[in-house]
Specification:
372 residues; alpha/beta; Rossmann fold; Glycosyltransferase family 4 protein; 2 domains; 12 helices; seven-stranded parallel sheet
């Protein structure tokens, strides 16, 4: 395909396994030239082993020492590549250098913030002031979900400037297994850290085990609270299997081993693990602190959104485990709902945001709307 003279750069922290295909699709199908600039190849808390996609990539550093990302060399790279449009995904110093570069060079800016209105309530006055300043300079906005849309609107951003670009996995790679053949009843998957509430998960499993004696629990992940979690389960005679940290391909097989996925979290702006579970036909129980709540996980349709009360979680889990038809309905609805969260939608949302930013509004929209 012959490309236009428009060049778009996507400036973000580090590569992630859930974005590679989107970048490929944009590179392959967009009229403009597209590249991705990463602050580093890896951050301190990530163990991902990635195969990078087929698209132009620049790395500003090998491994980030902190999450702050202060790469002054981004200025030299931007002077070399000269993008017409710069997309930033955070407000780290590196991205703010990019904002300043756009101001001085008269280039368009797009913000793709995956924060939500609730998750950014705690930000300092200075942090909010920086966002307010940047948003006034921004030509268009990308949002993974309704929480981010609400965030943008709280700063006075008009709806017409906001484009949905979902967070997703390759749904076709997730395995499905009939519910009656699944070995485990409930599953934990993620970092075993305080933010993910693994000890609340343990409390639910312990209480459930007293009412559902044949309970089998699957735990996937690793983290500083691993020993506490496993010891608590063992001391309370819960039958569990600990799979540890799994690479992405192996992990995709594990969601189909459990009838339910308990997504406990103190704060997740989205929660890609819910996409993985839904694509496997595994209903999700979570709280309003997960961005997927009310969008990908709809209460009483394909899962439950509950307060952090052990008895409430136990009663809703038992409701599903004792009603095979309801469990099957939730499973089917999970598969149907997650279909619209795909890499093509994500890529099309990005392309729409670029077309709006450069004034090519006649080409809108490409992205399919996401309906809960």
């Amino acid at each position: 395909m012959k490309k236009s003279k428009i060049r778009v750069s996507y400036l973000t922290q580090v590569p992630g396994p859930y974005r590679e295909r989107m970048h490929e699709l944009v590179h392959e199908s967009a009229d403009f030239t597209y590249d991705v600039i990463y602050c580093a190849k890896l951050e301190p808390n990530r163990s991902w082993k990635l195969s990078y996609g087929n698209y132009p990539i620049y790395f500003l550093a090998e491994v980030a020492k902190t999450f702050r990302h202060n790469n002054t060399n981004v200025w030299k790279l931007l002077n070399k590549t000269k993008p017409s449009v710069l997309i930033i995904t955070a407000f780290k110093p590196t991205m703010l250098y990019g904002v300043l570069w756009c101001i001085l060079n008269g280039k368009k800016l797009i913000v793709y913030n995956d924060g939500t209105y609730d998750s950014e309530l705690h930000l300092s006055f200075v942090q909010k002031l920086i966002r307010k300043f940047v948003y006034k300079l921004t030509s268009s906005f990308m949002a993974p979900g309704n929480g981010t849309v609400a965030l943008y609107k709280s700063y006075g951003v008009r709806s017409e400037k906001i484009f949905r670009s979902c967070l997703c996995v390759d749904n076709s790679k997730l395995k499905y297994q009939p519910l009656q053949e699944r070995e485990f009843h409930i599953m934990y998957s993620g970092q075993i850290t305080e933010r993910k509430l693994p000890l609340f998960f343990a409390d639910v499993a312990i209480a459930l085990n007293k009412l559902f004696p044949k309970l089998k629990v699957l735990v996937v992940g690793d983290g500083v609270l691993k020993d506490q979690l496993l010891t608590k389960l063992e001391n309370n005679h819960v039958d569990f299997h600990f799979a540890g940290f799994l690479d992405q391909n192996t992990l995709f097989e594990y969601y189909a081993k459990s009838k339910l996925f308990l997504f406990t979290t103190m704060d997740d702006v989205w929660g890609i693990v819910a996409n993985e579970a839904c694509a496997s036909g595994t209903p999700v129980i979570t709280s309003k602190d997960a961005g997927v709540a009310g969008e990908l996980v709809v209460h009483n349709r394909n899962g439950y959104v509950l307060p952090y009360d052990v008895s409430a979680w136990v009663s809703h889990i038992l409701n599903l485990l004792h009603d095979q038809q309801l469990l099957s309905n939730f499973s089917n609805q999970s598969i149907n709902l997650v279909k619209q969260y795909n890499h093509q939608q994500a890529a099309d949302g990005l392309i729409d945001a670029v077309n709006y930013a450069i004034g090519d509004k006649n080409r809108l929209p490409q992205a399919n709307p996401i309906i809960s």
